[in-house]
User: Which sequence fits this backbone?
């Protein structure tokens, strides 16, 4: 007998519309692309909602009713919750229905699905707290277990997560962290006292996430009975097998036509047949003791072969954009303007930086990588132009010859300064 | 393997990219061990090539296997060609080729563009050998399809129809060939052009142009001044850029029919003082321009390939390229635009000038990428194509 822990990540960013240099100082509808393309947040959300969130939630709800011992966990970014409220409240309700079963745990994360853990501890803490408030408001729950954006983790972060009151953190079961050890146990993160880490079993997780419809894969087609046997094998003499996936795997990354929903429908039963039971991350913390320590001196993640942060901060453009963003933080706070702060925070979402990634060209693996801007350079230009406009909206504390121009006049005047900087 | 290649011109005397592309491919084929003889319509100065060159216009032909230099006053061949009746030259070329083939043996005839079409079809007929027709540009690129049914269109059509295999320099061109000349897909092979890094590497004049030294930013167009290349669109974008960045200077490097028209346009757009017309430049001079350029624009209305983009990348010039360009099938690290969207073009030029990190990334990544596009890669594919035909 062993345990299985399912966690699904739910997230959609506020994508920036095409925004040229000529738009700086003249429009502020950064997130409101109205085109038919992939930058239209409403359209993308509606598409994903109907291909993935709604059918997958319906299926899980039915399965939860059918199997009283089935348990799951989700992490929903604050940004995707905002989009559910704005575009399709029905989706939000379907998640609430899942939580109401009492067997679905909601995890904590940064509200804006940001890279703040790598840039600014204070900002990170605030985004986590803001997310907790949102989860409390929507689901009536207080998240006990934390998962960081893209499972980014390093030792220094463990202390902060522990300090924020979390009992556990989800991390990637990366080879370079585990060495010969198995991901199917709890570990204690280095430099923490009581925090425990749940490690993603990337082999089994990626079998579903990436290989499910890959016909050149030796194990294609992947069926529920086959997969259940693999999980049983992994669970043997272990504590728990952690299957961590992007929720969009169901119906969006793996289309319905691939048979992914049929697979899902049969999976719980198959797992129960092998005497496996389901645990949520919080339950795992209570049930098991950590068997060893994991040491992550440098930040790592669940992304790519590299399992590092290079997909978001690997090139000069990405680092520049990130620096520019966080350099504005104090100034943004000094404005006492909630709406402005919200815009700034929505710019901290990791996806913006991911779209600027150029490393894919080197691998010749461009197709694996989705970019609604088609080009990392376009993504960078749009982002920097928007930041330039945002700067124009700020009152600088020590304006030379202050008072000469009223607040309104500043916008026009700075337009020139910023354009020429 | 003995290949008779029929070309129109070779460096240093070229009217456009064709001569460079033919020289690049032929040299790489020769280095692969192909026994290649190039036949040209007339005597001209030549760089040092690793293949034999024969001038059809010269009595009994002359073979050249090493460097020979004919002094020429003709520094601007584009202009001369424009004034001559090309079609009659092409037919004259055909007659000369027919005469020159007596007693010669080849396995394949490989010809470039319609200029070599009639002589190539004649040669293939006489030798009873298969023809490979390589298309670098069509009437659809040059005239937007306005001359369908015209004589040049007809020559192109007969050439691709009569060929055993057609090489298109891009998927973009393949599409034009299959759709407009009714050639089956499987008959057309895409072989992208390359760059001769060794040759370009020799152009190492590090001179800083005076304008650049004074802090001006150089926005460059390089190519024939013909509608197809979109120099007028370059000026329209330039006008917008000029309004937003006072330090920009717009350089038009090249010559052609549209020169007067472009000068007039620059005046009408109110940017005559910001535009520099360099006239025809040789490779050495172009390299200096590329090195000094802040951005190179390729605003072509229709660009089968766009060698200029690879060459500028070699020298590290950030690029803004028309989406109607074959080179985009292999070059990732550049910005792309609709040639007619002057605001978008201007916005991208300004972005490159404004964001240092963007400039660096484009420069470094494109420069690294160009290393993959050696002519050897193209020649390998071409060689396989020969083998396929011969078996």
Assistant:
């Amino acid at each position: 007998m062993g345990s299985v822990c399912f966690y699904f990540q739910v997230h959609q960013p506020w994508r920036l519309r095409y925004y040229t240099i000529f738009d700086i100082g003249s429009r502020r509808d950064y997130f409101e692309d109205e085109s038919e393309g992939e930058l239209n947040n409403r359209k993308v959300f509606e598409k994903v909602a109907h291909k993935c969130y709604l059918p997958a939630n319906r299926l899980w709800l039915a399965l939860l009713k059918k199997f009283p011992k089935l348990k799951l966990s989700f992490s929903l970014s604050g940004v995707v919750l905002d989009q559910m409220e704005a575009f399709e409240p029905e989706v939000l309700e379907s998640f609430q229905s899942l939580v109401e079963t009492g067997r679905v745990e909601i995890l904590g994360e940064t509200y804006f699905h940001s890279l703040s853990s790598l840039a600014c501890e204070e900002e990170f803490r605030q985004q986590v707290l803001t997310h907790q408030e949102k989860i409390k408001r929507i689901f009536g729950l207080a998240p006990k277990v934390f998962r960081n954006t893209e499972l980014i983790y390093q030792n220094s972060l463990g202390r902060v997560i522990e300090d924020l009151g979390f009992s556990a953190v989800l991390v990637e079961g990366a080879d370079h962290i585990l060495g010969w050890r198995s991901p199917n146990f709890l570990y204690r993160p280095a430099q923490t006292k009581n925090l425990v880490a749940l490690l993603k079993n990337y082999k089994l997780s990626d079998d579903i996430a990436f290989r499910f419809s890959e016909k050149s894969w030796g194990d294609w087609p992947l069926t529920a009975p086959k997969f259940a046997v693999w999980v049983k094998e992994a669970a043997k003499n272990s504590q728990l097998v952690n299957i961590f996936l992007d929720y969009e795997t169901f119906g969006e990354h793996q289309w319905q036509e691939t048979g992914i929903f049929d697979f899902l429908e049969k999976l719980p039963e198959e797992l129960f047949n092998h005497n496996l039971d389901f645990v949520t991350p919080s339950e795992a913390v209570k049930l098991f003791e950590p068997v060893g320590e994991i040491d992550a001196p440098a930040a790592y993640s669940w992304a790519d072969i590299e399992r590092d942060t290079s997909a978001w901060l690997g090139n000069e453009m990405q680092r520049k954009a990130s620096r520019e963003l966080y350099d504005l933080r104090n100034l943004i706070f000094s404005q006492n303007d909630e709406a402005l702060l919200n815009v700034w925070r929505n710019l901290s979402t990791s996806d913006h930086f991911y779209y600027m990634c150029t490393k894919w060209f080197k691998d010749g693996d461009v197709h694996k990588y989705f970019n609604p801007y088609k080009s990392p350079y376009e993504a960078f230009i749009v982002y920097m132009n928007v930041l330039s406009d945002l700067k124009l909206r700020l009152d600088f504390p020590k304006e030379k010859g202050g008072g000469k121009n009223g607040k309104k006049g500043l916008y026009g005047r700075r337009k020139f300064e910023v354009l020429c900087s | 393997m003995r290949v008779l290649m029929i070309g129109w011109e070779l460096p240093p005397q070229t009217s456009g990219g064709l001569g460079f592309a033919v020289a690049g491919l032929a040299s790489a084929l020769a280095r692969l061990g192909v026994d290649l003889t190039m036949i040209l319509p007339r005597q001209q100065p030549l760089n040092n090539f690793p293949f034999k060159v024969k001038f059809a216009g010269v009595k009994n032909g002359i073979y050249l296997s090493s460097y020979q230099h004919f002094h020429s006053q003709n520094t601007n061949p584009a202009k001369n060609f424009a004034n001559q009746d090309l079609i009659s030259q092409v037919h004259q070329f055909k007659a000369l080729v027919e005469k020159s083939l007596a007693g010669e043996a080849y396995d394949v005839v490989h010809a470039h563009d319609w200029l070599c079409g009639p002589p190539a079809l004649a040669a293939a007929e006489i030798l009873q050998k298969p023809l490979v027709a390589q298309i670098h540009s069509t009437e659809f690129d040059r005239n937007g399809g306005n001359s369908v049914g015209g004589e040049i269109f007809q020559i192109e059509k007969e050439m691709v129809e009569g060929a055993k295999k057609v090489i298109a320099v891009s998927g973009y061109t393949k599409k034009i060939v299959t759709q407009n000349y009714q050639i089956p897909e499987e008959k057309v092979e895409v072989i992208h052009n390359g760059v001769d890094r060794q040759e370009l590497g020799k152009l190492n004049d590090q001179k800083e142009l005076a304008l650049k030294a004074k802090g001006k930013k150089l926005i460059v167009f390089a190519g024939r001044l013909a509608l197809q290349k979109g120099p007028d669109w370059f000026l329209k974008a330039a006008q917008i850029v000029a309004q937003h960045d006072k330090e920009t200077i717009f350089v038009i490097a090249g010559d052609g029919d549209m020169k007067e028209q472009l000068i007039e346009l620059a005046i009408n757009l109110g940017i005559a003082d910001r535009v520099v017309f360099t006239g025809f430049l040789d490779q050495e001079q172009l390299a200096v321009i590329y090195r000094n350029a802040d951005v190179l624009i390729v605003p072509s209305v229709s660009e089968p390939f766009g060698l200029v983009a690879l060459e500028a990348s070699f020298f590290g010039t950030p690029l803004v390229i028309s989406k109607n360009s074959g080179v985009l099938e292999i070059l990732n690290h550049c910005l792309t635009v609709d040639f007619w969207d002057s605001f978008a073009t201007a916005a991208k030029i300004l972005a490159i000038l404004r964001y240092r990190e963007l400039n660096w990334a484009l420069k470094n990544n494109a420069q690294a990428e160009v290393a993959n596009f050696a002519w050897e890669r193209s020649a390998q594919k071409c060689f396989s194509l020969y083998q396929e035909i011969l078996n």
